Amino acid sequence: MDVQESLLTREEVERRVGLSRSTIYARMAAGTFPAARREIETGNVRWLASEVDAWIADWITKAEPVVGTVVGSRRARMKKPLKSAA
After folding, report:
1. The pTM is what?
2. Which of 1.10.10, 1.10.3470, 1.10.1660, 1.10.150 is the CATH number of 7-62?
3. How far apart are CA 21 and CA 14, in angstroms?
4. Each residue's pLDDT expressed in tens, for the chain with a length of 86 residues
């Protein structure tokens, strides 16, 4: 059985990986994100879904779980500092 490769637009890649356009292109330039392909006739840019999925799987294996309140999170910023007794 043949499996057909899916092509993703930039917007689809952004939604799938949660990165902005500039971050995606910066990581592509650094060689840390799958390269896009440009169709010569139309100039359309697409990514192979299998390569993006592999990048996501690799990211998951390397990522550390976040426990508790993240430093710099909205919740942490909303907490008021304690008033000093001085």
Report:
1. 0.71
2. 1.10.1660
3. 7
4. 566 889 999 999 999 999 999 999 999 999 999 999 999 999 999 999 999 999 999 999 998 887 776 666 665 566 666 666 65
